[in-house]
Design brief:
Blueprint: E1 2-9, E2 15-22, E3 31-35, H1 45-53, E4 57-61, H2 78-94, E5 100-106, H3 108-119, E6 125-129, H4 145-154, E7 156-162, E8 165-170, H5 171-178, E9 194-200, H6 209-218, E10 224-229, H7 239-261
Parallel strand pairs: 3-4, 3-5, 5-6, 6-9, 9-10
Antiparallel strand pairs: 1-2, 2-4, 7-8
Helix pairs in contact: 2-3
Domain Serine aminopeptidase S33: 28-195
Pfam families: Hydrolase_4
InterPro entries: AB_hydrolase_fold, Hydrolase_4
Length: 263
């Protein structure tokens, strides 16, 4: 596998850092773009598992303000990250002169990928790995009570360090996250797009129930396929669960590559 790291100009005053993974034996010459989750990078365990093990060329990148990418991140910046994906898709087509077969995301990145598909109908295959559906409640273990009190009284608090920068949670960012409406996935164009959702039955971060809601909104097959991996947690840390994850993704991609080539 050949790895090449480069910068992508967003046209907004900052660059995104990306890595292209080209493989000697693949099922298609097109590219699978893989997106990381909250507080993570393109080097996350789940992202690396996907880009290294699927029999397709892959590209992973750091969202703005994460990893080696420039710019600033924020807690509720889903729409900004959708536009990050848009930049990467354009780069693959215009600079690398390759087709984008699929966009795959994990956790927050999966929600971003679904939002991308609901806004733009230009990538035929979408993979959602463990996206949250219901954003109306703050995950109970995410913030300490004193942090939420500081948010209430001061309008912001420093959550943690992200690289050399303070990751500040502002009330407007929290509001943006809490008001995120994932029901827009029902607008994904069934004529042009197929979606796979994979979720672990023991996900401790994003409730499994959300994947059943996605299935109701985007299904039935072949428009949306849902796979629940029994015993898997949010990050698929167990080697057995990694293998099942890759097998499911690969089988689904192999099934729909011929369909996508006819669009």
């Amino acid at each position: 596998m050949e790895e090449t790291t480069f910068k992508v100009d967003t046209g907004k005053g900052f660059n995104l850092s990306a890595t292209l993974f080209l493989k000697s034996i693949v099922h298609s010459e097109s590219i699978v773009i893989v997106c990381h989750g909250l507080l993570n990078t393109r080097l996350s365990e789940t992202v690396r598992t996907v880009v290294e093990r699927i029999p397709y060329h892959a590209l992973s990148f750091d969202f703005q303000g994460n990893g080696l990418s420039e710019g600033i991140t924020a807690y509720g910046n889903y729409e900004e990250e959708v536009e990050n994906v848009r930049c990467i898709v354009s780069y693959v087509r215009e600079k690398l002169e390759r087709k984008v077969l699929c966009i795959c995301g994990h956790s927050k990145g999966a929600a971003v990928v679904l939002l991308y598909a609901s806004k733009y109908s230009d990538v035929p295959l979408i993979i959602n790995i463990s996206a949250r559906y219901d954003h109306t409640q703050i995950p109970p273990s995410r913030f300490r009570p004193e942090q939420l009190e500081e948010l209430k009284t001061k309008g912001s608090f420093v959550w943690l360090k992200l690289g050399n920068q303070d990751y500040v949670i502002r009330q407007e960012d929290m509001n943006a996250s809490l008001s995120l409406d994932m029901s827009v996935v029902k607008n994904i164009d069934k004529r042009k797009i197929r979606v796979l959702t994979v979720h672990g039955s023991k996900d401790e971060v994003c409730p499994l129930e959300g994947s059943y809601t996605y299935d109701l909104l985007m299904g039935p097959k072949p428009y949306h396929s849902l796979t629940v991996i029994q015993g898997a947690n949010h990050c698929y840390n167990n080697e057995k669960h990694k293998t099942i994850l890759i097998d499911k993704i690969t089988a689904w991609l192999n099934e729909f590559v011929p369909w996508s080539s006819n669009l």
